[in-house]
Amino acid sequence: MNRTRITFVVIMLVTFCAIGLIILFGSIIPALTDRGNGSASDTPAATPLPEGSLLITLASSNTKESWLNQVTAQFNSENHTTASGQRIVVEVSHVTSGGSMNAILDGSSQPIAWSPGDQSWVDQANEAWRQRYNKPLASQACQPTVYAPLGFAMWRPMAEVLGWPEKPIGWDTIVDLAANPEGWASYGRPEWGQFSFGHSHPAYANSGLLSMTSFVYGIAGRTDSLTVADVYSDEVQTAMRALEENTARYGRQAPALLELMAREGTGYLHAAAVPEAEVVRFNVERGDELTFPLAFIFPAGGTIWADHPYCILDNADWVSDEQAEAAGIFLDYLLSDEQQEAAIDNYLRPLDSRIALHNPMTLDYGTDPRVTPATVPPLPSPNADISAAVIDIFNLNKRKATVLIVIDVSGSMEGERIKTARTATVEFLQRLDPNDQVGVIIFSDEPVVLEAPARVGDVVEGLSGRVGGLVADGNTALYQSVCDAVSLMQAQQAEDAANGESRLYGIVLLSDGEDTVGRVTENQMFATCLPSQAEADGIKIFPIAFGDAADTEVLNRIATVSGGRLFTADPQSIGNVYISISAEQ
Known about the structure:
Blueprint: H1 2-28, E1 31-32, E2 53-61, H2 65-77, E3 87-95, H3 97-106, E4 113-115, H4 119-133, E5 148-155, H5 156-161, H6 171-179, E6 197-199, H7 206-220, H8 228-231, H9 234-244, E7 247-249, H10 254-264, E8 271-275, H11 276-285, E9 294-297, E10 305-306, E11 311-312, H12 321-334, H13 337-345, H14 384-397, E12 401-408, H15 416-431, E13 437-443, E14 447-455, H16 456-467, H17 478-498, E15 504-511, H18 522-529, E16 539-546, H19 552-562, E17 567-569, H20 574-584
Parallel strand pairs: 1-3, 2-3, 2-4, 6-7, 6-8, 12-13, 12-15, 15-16, 16-17
Antiparallel strand pairs: 4-11, 5-8, 5-9, 5-10, 13-14
């Protein structure tokens, strides 16, 4: 009996120890996946560490998320140490390049190491840091880690009609197809209609900035250097205008564009400017959802082989010498042959071309393994001046937007919610282009039009003051407000079409609760007010579920049928959500 009891006690102790270790290591090695703007939420919170260990935080662009999660888990399991014997524990947050740069510069994010998608972000950050402290963020040059080249995702049958994978396809091909009034009929496929394109916003997304820079190189016929004068040339701006007039979607992240292509099918977007890694990942992981496989097209003449530099921020006062040492040890680990080989499994290309590509980086999964930096030349990354010019000509030539903001001011919004909603909405208004159009509807017991859509530059000051004075009271006429908003935008769209204007149309719908009025039913709203199927040039609705009581199921259906996107927010995150919606416009 005593022996049995002793055995039982030993088993229980071992079990509790194992559970404790699982909890401990689960807490110190989380795979944080906030895809926001690099705000404070992207910096991992302080976590319990084993005694004698040193935490190294890394803010990394989300294109290499799966690879870094795999490598980090393996590194942490191997008990690497600094020269003093401290065990190194690495914790990664996955962020956008531009957002994380801004967060580091404003102090809301303080990682030990930073790995944006491209050297251009490092140059911008270093320039800002030099202006403040007379030194760059990192004392040593940031080291490349992997390649994630930029190009076009296109439905494979469409890419093959253009000659993929054997025939070179450049930006000029894309612009000519976009501007051709015959659309796909010019290639003998009239059933595909007009060409529809999408790309992420260059002011918010690494993929957007690099894609638009690659566009400028391609149209200007340059491969080695680019000047600001080249960017502002009539030739480049004319081509940019032709492309943007047929661009149906912008956004903050390239994966969101592929999500739309997967969800809406071939009739929505025909192509999008994205990294190769995202195309291959979608074919592998989401192939069953796709109407056709996607093809990745390397732009003829050259592309930006984004090399995801790794920067040790040792000139920042929050990084100690030992933390910098530890971050360097992890960098060496990333560059080892074993981890570079693992990059291929995670849809990335190793820096060393002697490491042969294999599945999934093959034609079967949508990319051409024969392409290398020797066959498609690497274009120089944009410096700060070129980046600013590219973003500027994009803003000058992009399709203008008509945005209608619909705000729930029912009694449940009282207090902190209405206060933060007012502040965030005013900031959103002031972020819009002066030549965009904006209107506002508020609703409680019934919808009220504060301002019909009008030129932003003419109304933003007065409208900001009115929004800043909103108060909360009454019930929630959600369904009627959606119907009224769509009706108002349809009238505006018809008027613009009669005047020969081509614009993007979006409704931002902020609500914290369910419909409590009932004059328009849920079924009536979907059956009579909303489209049965999303259209690329249709009126897109971007609902913001503000708080736990919001009817997220209904709001998500509204987003889906309109080709929009559901966001969730609370008083702390509403500003960040509005920034994401800004990138959609």
